[in-house]
Write a structure and sequence with these properties.
664 residues; alpha/beta; 6-stranded antiparallel sheet
């Protein structure tokens, strides 16, 4: 019987920089889903790749002194290397600089133009370079980009536009008729209420102010808007062509699942479906907008030394431990968190103490007491029945969770089975049974049941920790192919379906980590070099300024609006303040910056007491490289004015302005 197809994609990674652990979460999540679907018997086609055009890439390449193509070749290679390091089983890796993709995008643009969905006009508004997005004044949030919160720049240029409003009502109807099109539910409501119902404006789909993009073939001074370029990768990768698509495209489209980050949901659930409507193509069946992975409660920043890369974690803890953390620590609909401390704690608790310990001591006892020879599992009493029921219920629950992409819940149930198995050891006391020859048959049954429970854990763990699952199978005497034959999940319908056999050698799956020693190693080898590199980069980008005198007041040389835009001024609320013991001048402020809390040191203790500042809102420089002052880290600078000789005044702002607001 022919297998049912399942075409799934990730968002393609933007090649502006090496992907950090938050970016890597998506490919690991997608891989776990792909592996589970294969185990269920689906013919899976799993596509990923890199997004390589746009103004930001052009600027990055210029700063690096290389061509844009050389720049994206390097970063795309880094992306693919990390995806491979994470043991992901994608079927195709597309690059938007691939010639077939570029040629097809040109055809798509022309088809939309000839259909009347694209027209030429002039754009004047605000542009966010990092997001490659245009905004009107009314769409800005506190004067900043509503997506990323960064400053925007005025832009005016000739451009082509797509008639978004032409398809808006049709898209709203589609979303209402297909309640599972956008998940989680909260993401769907956000798209309808915040974007569709207020009305869609026509979308700028070309640029003339830079060259690094796919040229509009009938008007070469224009390059295709990066999102119209990138989104079409989902169909160009499988052979779509306006002049005649491949058999593979006809088989695979529409996609069954797009896995994307919540920050690009609008592009995938509004722009992309409308582009497809323009091409008269079916819409994807489902778009899953997953949450973000943050460092503690903050965004990752090199200057803070908290950017975590997957390959660094793999070198420290191993591939499967990293996969396990990403898939078990991320909630389904809310942002997750990672720190080195939480990683180590979860590694020791879940992997070393619970799963690893269970396998090691069970296999060791089987070899010690019976030379590894064990019968099939069997039910002799209520303890056995409870263990078997837990295993059967776990298999059913994991399938249900994975059908809804709840990986953290699925892994929690697998861990519960391991915990129940460890409890079964405590309840049956194999070491006591071994002392009485008359009880050896019972001991044999106990160990056989434990080995069977481990089989359940191994099979169910394969999508999440494939190498560990294979190692578990090897230790309990079953071939790796048992995980890949398409019948592994089916074999879990009966507890005891695995035959009598000889188990393998006991080997530690996860060695317990000394937290203190590991954190010292991380600080020395990763955190401090990262902070030093960020400081060196910041110092290299700052030209020394000479003061110029004008009527007795010192002024710095003039700067351009672009240079000023590099300074990120924000409103912050001082939630607490105290004097720094090691300094007579410094106060230590804990400032709510709208996304979390940061520590800022300010040399104003001569003029302010802590109680004068607590609860007040101030302006601070948010993107100033962190520095250590008197042994403490300062992550910003509060603005203050010289109000006279030996008089300094902090610039307070109205309490009604939200923390995190941009200052212009």
């Amino acid at each position: 019987m022919e297998k049912k197809k399942f075409y799934m994609t990730t968002a393609i990674a933007y090649t502006s920089a090496k992907p950090h652990i938050g970016n890597t979460y998506e490919i690991v999540l997608a891989d776990a889903i792909a592996r589970h679907k294969r185990m269920e018997g689906y013919d899976v086609f799993f596509c990923t790749g890199t997004d390589e055009h746009g103004q930001k890439i052009e600027e990055k390449a210029e700063a690096a002194g290389v061509t844009p193509k050389a720049y994206v070749d390097r970063v795309s290679g880094e992306v693919r290397k990390i995806w491979d390091t994470m043991n992901t089983t994608y079927d195709y890796f597309i690059r938007t600089t691939d010639a077939p993709h570029e040629k097809t995008v040109q055809k798509i643009f022309k088809k939309m133009y000839e259909k009347g969905d694209i027209y030429k006009s002039e754009y004047e508004g605000m542009y966010c370079t990092p997001c490659e997005s245009f905004w009107t004044e009314s769409q800005l949030v506190n004067g900043c980009c509503p997506d990323c919160g960064r400053p925007v720049q005025p832009a005016k240029e000739e451009a082509y536009f797509f008639k978004m409003s032409k398809y808006a009502d049709r898209l709203i109807q589609y979303i209402e008729d297909n309640p599972d099109f956008i998940v989680p539910e909260s993401r769907k409501k956000e798209m309808i209420n915040n974007f569709l119902k207020p009305g869609l404006q026509d979308l700028c789909v070309s640029r003339t102010s830079f060259k690094w993009g796919i040229p509009v073939d009938f008007d070469p001074k224009h390059v295709v808007y990066v999102w119209l370029d990138a989104l079409n990768n989902y169909i160009t990768a499988i052979g779509y062509d306006p002049d005649g698509s491949t058999e593979q495209f006809e088989k695979l489209w529409p996609a069954d699942l797009h896995i994307i980050g919540k920050d690009i949901l609008r592009f995938h659930t509004i722009y992309w479906p409308i582009f497809l409507m323009s091409l008269d193509l079916p819409l994807p069946k489902q778009v899953f907008g997953h949450p973000w992975l943050l460092f503690a409660a903050d965004k990752m920043s090199k200057s803070k030394g908290n950017v975590i890369y997957a390959d660094d974690l793999v070198n420290l803890f191993g591939v499967d431990a990293v996969r396990y953390y990403l898939l078990s620590a991320m909630p389904y609909a809310q942002d997750g968190s990672i720190t080195y401390e939480t990683f180590i704690a979860k590694y020791n608790s879940d992997l070393a103490n619970t799963i690893g310990n269970l396998v090691n001591r069970t296999v060791s006892m089987a070899n010690k007491y019976f030379g590894g020879e064990l019968p099939a599992a069997m039910i002799e009493n209520e303890l056995d029945r409870d263990l078997a029921d837990t295993a059967l219920q776990t298999a059913e629950a994991v399938k249900g969770y994975m059908d809804q992409y709840h990986t953290a819940d699925a892994l929690a149930r697998i861990l519960t089975l391991a915990q129940r198995s460890n409890k079964y050891i405590d309840e049956t006391t194999p070491w006591a049974l071994a002392k009485d020859e008359a009880k050896l048959p019972r001991l044999r049954t106990v160990l056989a049941n434990l080995i069977e429970a481990i089989r359940y854990i191994a099979v169910l763990s394969e999508p999440f920790m494939p190498d560990t699952a294979a190692a578990m199978m090897d230790q309990i005497g079953l071939p790796d192919s048992h995980l890949e034959d398409g019948e592994a999940l089916g074999s879990l319908a009966v507890f005891g379906s695995a035959p009598a056999r000889k188990v393998g050698e006991a080997k530690a799956l996860f060695a317990r980590i000394d937290e203190k020693a590991m954190l010292e190693k991380i600080d020395k080898e990763i955190v401090q070099p990262q902070i030093a590199a960020a400081k060196a980069e910041a110092a290299a980008s700052e030209a020394p300024a000479e003061e110029e005198k004008a009527e007795g007041v010192a002024f710095l040389p003039e700067i351009t609006i672009d240079e000023f835009a590099k300074i990120d001024l924000r409103v912050g609320k001082i939630v607490s303040c105290e004097k720094l013991k090691k300094s007579r001048k410094l106060l230590k402020l804990m400032v709510d910056d709208g996304q979390g809390t940061r520590q800022i040191l300010s040399g104003i203790s001569k003029w302010y007491k802590p109680e004068d500042l607590e609860g007040r809102k101030v302006i601070f420089v948010a993107n100033l490289a962190p520095a250590k002052l008197a042994g403490e880290l300062s992550e910003g600078m509060v603005l203050a004015a010289d109000a006279g000789e030996d008089d300094v005044r902090v610039m307070f702002v109205d309490d009604s302005i939200p923390a995190g607001s941009c200052i212009h």
